DNA sequence: AACGCGGGGCC
DNA sequence: GGCCCAGCGTT
């Protein structure tokens, strides 16, 4: 039996029952695919259900506010996905009359839909013969066929894409694409793959050559940036000080507190730090350290300090980015995880 | 081609 | 602590 048939046979015996597999509605599949980008199924599943409940049709999504979308997305990360979905939902209403496209060439033009997602939607919703190439597929193909080109090199991406596309010819596209990804997720896992019970092990290059734990190859690692965030919590008459984060940095468009970012762990003890605080909150202001958190992200480590403000005055004309809003309204806004965690404990 | 973008789970 | 997860957009 060839590779594809083994994969499909394995899939029929071992597949999970996932909600987006029981539909060919391109909108629903799009919802699931965007949510699952760089996201584990278990983490994305509750968000998928929540979004489908709030926005049953693409029209409902298109009519939502960005704040509402980001609020529903809160906690999932990579928030540009949510913003791009709103943009694309509007596009689908305007350019496609509310009918979500199912052809690869149309899908690839939409914001937030790249090669993987266009292949996924077009194959699942339309049985178009486009091979998905995601992290699972890279791993399975690299190990089974012994492809040793790095998966994140230009040549590697080309090789894997061509190999994947050659394998899907003459297959049922939807079934085969689902199967190879599920096989990668459950059987041919990154760590501790289940080789001893794998039906493909006898013809697997990596198993034969004892390279399971080094394949696939990947070039270098991301450099992690360290940052120091000092947040200031001003509460007065059921209102709290807040600001919206600007483009060009993490958590774009989401809401946090007035912030002084420092360049290291010591700087907040120095006079300049106090000058900034007095500039923002007046000369009579007092601060009290409320909590410290080390917030770990893939590309950044953020050391966060929360200071409570006392006896403060804000000149809202001078500091137009800072707003004072009802605490209950503030809680309804979208916040990054480190902020929503703080809110739960302190507000 | 390289980089920025979240949060969580696993080893 | 490092790696990976149904990747994509920007520069």
TrEMBL record:
Q: Which reaction does this enzyme catalyse, per its entry?
A: Hydrolyzes free adenine bases from 7,8-dihydro-8-oxoguanine:adenine mismatched double-stranded DNA, leaving an apurinic site
Q: Which cofactor does it need?
A: [4Fe-4S] cluster
A single BP term in Gene Ontology: base-excision repair
Which SUPFAM superfamilies would you find in this protein's record?
DNA-glycosylase
Enzyme class, spelled out? hydrolase
Asked whether the keyword Chaperone is assigned, the reply is: no
Question: Which family, according to the similarity comment?
Answer: Belongs to the Nth/MutY family.
Protein's UniProt name: Adenine DNA glycosylase
Q: Lineage, please?
A: Bacteria, Pseudomonadati, Bacteroidota, Sphingobacteriia, Sphingobacteriales
């Amino acid at each position: 039996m060839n590779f594809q048939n083994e994969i499909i046979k394995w899939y029929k015996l071992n597949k999970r029952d996932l909600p987006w597999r029981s539909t060919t509605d391109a909108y629903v599949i799009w919802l699931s695919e965007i949510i699952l980008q760089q996201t584990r199924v278990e983490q994305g599943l509750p968000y998928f259900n929540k979004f489908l409940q709030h926005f049953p049709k693409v029209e409902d999504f298109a009519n939502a506010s960005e704040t509402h979308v980001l609020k529903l997305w809160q906690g999932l990360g990579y928030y540009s996905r949510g913003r791009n979905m709103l943009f694309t939902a509007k596009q689908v209403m305007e350019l496609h009359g509310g009918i979500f496209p199912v052809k690869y060439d149309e899908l690839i033009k939409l914001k937030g839909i790249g090669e993987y997602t266009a292949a996924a939607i077009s194959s699942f919703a339309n049985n178009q013969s486009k091979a998905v190439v995601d992290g699972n597929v890279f791993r399975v193909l690299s190990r089974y066929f012994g492809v040793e080109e790095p998966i994140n090199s230009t040549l590697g991406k080309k090789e894997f894409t061509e190999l994947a596309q050659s394998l899907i010819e003459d297959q049922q596209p939807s079934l085969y694409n689902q199967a190879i990804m599920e096989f990668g997720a459950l059987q041919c896992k990154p760590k501790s793959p289940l080789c001893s019970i794998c039906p493909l092990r006898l013809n697997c290059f990596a198993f034969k050559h004892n390279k399971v734990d080094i394949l696939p190859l990947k070039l270098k690692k991301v450099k992690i940036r360290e940052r120091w965030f000092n947040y200031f919590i001003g509460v007065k008459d059921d209102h709290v000080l807040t600001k919206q984060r600007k483009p060009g940095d993490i958590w774009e468009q989401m809401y946090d507190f007035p912030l002084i970012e420092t360049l290291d762990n010591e700087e907040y003890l120095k006079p300049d730090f106090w000058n900034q605080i007095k500039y923002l909150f007046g000369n009579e202001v007092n601060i009290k350290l409320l909590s410290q958190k080390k917030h770990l992200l893939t590309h950044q480590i953020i050391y966060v300090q929360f200071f409570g403000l006392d006896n403060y005055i804000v000149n809202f004309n001078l500091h137009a980015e800072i707003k004072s809003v009802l605490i209950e309204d503030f809680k309804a806004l979208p916040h990054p995880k480190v902020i929503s965690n703080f809110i739960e404990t302190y507000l």
